[in-house]
Specification:
Layout: H1 16-42, H2 45-49, H3 54-65, H4 83-96, H5 98-106, H6 109-117, H7 120-131, E1 140-143, E2 169-173, E3 176-188, E4 195-201, E5 210-216, E6 222-224, E7 238-249, E8 253-255, H8 257-296, E9 298-299, E10 302-303, H9 308-340, H10 347-372, E11 382-383, E12 389-390, H11 392-402, H12 409-418
Parallel strand pairs: 1-4
Antiparallel strand pairs: 2-3, 3-7, 4-5, 5-8, 6-7, 9-10, 11-12
Helix pairs in contact: 1-3, 1-4, 4-5, 4-8, 5-8, 6-7, 8-9, 8-10, 8-11, 9-10, 10-11, 10-12
């Protein structure tokens, strides 16, 4: 295994604690996330989420290592990392496997929302048991998109882009709410989730007049669709959700109609930059793999990286990635710190980071595949002299998926443009 530092850390103020967590995350990513990501990638979508799947063991190991508690409330065992330290950890995890790193983002999401917006009863019922480890089998999904509404759901808080509609209707009924309708198959981690954050329509005249509810997925009337068999990010399972007159208590609607637009705006400021971070990890993995491959592969009588054409291509990959890292990391720290203080960060920067980082990751993964030639198309990967394995074909598929995930890039650019200034 190559233990050389994979990049030069330009921030000289990084604490020893941050570097230690970074090293721990790098080891976890190499030893667990990377090999399991490939294993899940080649499994059928059904087998990857079936009982006994190694996916569940991964979540359990991540919990024991502290990677499900990065942002947990301090009284529930949070690690107390700064946002920059958190970013360093997550970048390492994403470089191991971005789909599994996304799962670690999403698994605590319901319980974090409940802690931030739920009633004291709901905090004791859901947030406390998850974060304290009383219910280690619990995990989340976030069901945003509808069958007839995809990326435009992300624009519901942007007046110039908002549209009417909504396929999942929530109607008030006595002391609770009744949900009827369907969410699209793109809801991440749905196949393995026990609880969902669900975006629902309260006023069908405008997608911005909605709500966010927490729904236990074992309630009568909730049906999960088949796991989605998809191109990339396969270790992060996805599936649809159907609701047939599903009743939830009134306090399970965490965000109501009047606050929904602002809540989605605030959520978007951290969601898009989080996607940028995950995509950057994919690009970084492709660059580091290509760098090693060109050092070992002899072509034309000398290692590939001694050819000037190769050097120029590697340097272009390096430059693009460093630019993407700088924008993503600065935006991540800024927006998450403001969110923790109850303020709203820059949506324009978050959209810019997502669009730029995902486009960069795809370009870098494509360049890595070109450098590796025909060997890059082998789904079994490229084995280095020390036994490590590089999977450029998988990374290219993952990078393509990021250009659509959590909002297609062209629409995200329009959302960002609408929020300039």
């Amino acid at each position: 295994m190559n233990d050389k530092e994979p990049f030069v850390e330009l921030d000289l103020t990084i604490s020893d604690n941050a570097r230690e967590w970074q090293r721990r995350a790098r080891t976890f990513a190499r030893e667990h996330a990377l090999p399991l990501g490939h294993e899940l990638d080649v499994m059928s979508a059904e087998d990857a989420v079936a009982p006994g799947s190694p996916y569940f063991e991964f979540l359990a190991t991540a919990r024991s290592e502290g990677f499900l508690h990065l942002t947990a409330p301090p009284e529930f065992g949070g690690l107390g990392l700064s946002r920059l330290e958190e970013y360093l950890v997550l970048e390492e995890l994403a470089t191991g496997d971005a789909g599994l790193a996304a799962s670690l983002f999403i698994a605590p999401l319901v319980y974090q929302f409940v802690y931030n917006f739920g009633s004291p009863r709901l905090v004791d019922e859901l947030a406390r048991p998850f974060f304290t480890g009383q219910r280690p089998e619990w995990s989340s999904c976030f069901a945003i998109t509808d069958s007839r509404h995809g990326s435009d759901m992300m624009a519901a808080h942007t007046p110039s882009l908002a549209v009417p509609g909504g396929d999942l209707i929530a109607r008030e009924d006595g002391d609770g709410w009744v949900l009827s309708g369907r969410k699209a198959p793109w809801a991440s981690c749905t196949a393995t989730a026990t609880h969902a954050l669900v975006c629902c329509t309260l006023d069908s005249s405008n997608l911005a007049r909605g709500g966010i509810a927490v729904v236990p997925l074992d309630l009568d009337g909730v049906t999960k669709g088949e796991p989605l068999d998809k191109l990339g990010l396969r270790p992060m399972n996805q599936a649809s959700l159907s609701f047939a007159d599903v009743r939830i208590p009134k306090d399970h609607l965490l965000i109501g109609e009047d606050a929904y637009g602002m809540a989605m705006h605030a959520t978007h400021t951290v969601a898009s930059v989080s996607m940028a971070l995950l995509a950057f990890g994919t690009g970084r993995a492709a660059y580091e793999g290509a760098l090693r491959y060109t050092a070992e592969r002899v072509q034309g009588g000398k290692p590939l990286h001694e050819h000037q054409a190769t050097q120029l291509r590697l340097f272009s990959m390096f430059t693009k990635l460093e630019a993407a890292r700088a924008l993503t990391r600065a935006t991540y720290v800024h927006n998450y710190e403001l969110a923790a203080a109850g303020k709203v960060g820059s949506l324009a920067h978050s959209c810019a980071a997502k669009v730029f980082a995902t486009e960069t990751a795809f370009e870098v993964c494509d360049a890595a595949s070109q450098l590796c030639g025909a060997r890059a198309t082998d789904r079994r990967g490229l084995r280095f002299s020390d036994g490590d394995v590089f999977y450029p074909e998988k990374l290219l598929r993952d990078a393509k998926s990021f250009k659509i995930a959590d909002g297609e890039n062209t629409l995200l650019a329009l959302i960002g443009a609408a929020h300039l200034g």
